[in-house]
Amino acid sequence: MLYLDSFGPRNLSKEFDEFFKNGIYNPLKADLEENDKEYILKIDVPGIEKKDISIDFNDYYLTVSVSEKYEKDNKKKYLIKERGYNLVSRSFYLENALEDSIKAKLENGVLMLEVKKQQKIDNRRIITID
Hints:
Elements: E1 2-5, E2 8-11, H1 12-21, E3 30-34, E4 38-44, E5 53-58, E6 61-69, E7 85-93, E8 103-107, E9 110-116
Antiparallel strand pairs: 1-2, 3-4, 4-9, 5-6, 6-7, 8-9
């Protein structure tokens, strides 16, 4: 889609792609660390309560969903009303994660998840020739 403004024609599709790809707009900012024993995921969720966070693990994908719902107040006159209901989620592929080991903690607007890793199993078998 081309858009014409005071700076001339611009390709908005490309700009929107860059906008989302570069993480300029990312509703759930995250850091994912990995070491030999575990994954550590930290997600910024300022102002969000535990009851509004959902965590799901399926086929090595850890999905965090956050919903925000604001009460409707018809008695007030709003000049701008942008907060209503939002649902955002992010998924992270965690190869060799142990599903039963996932621990989550919410503190100071940061959701922290610790996920233990499975020990790599060496399925090689050396066969001797008689």
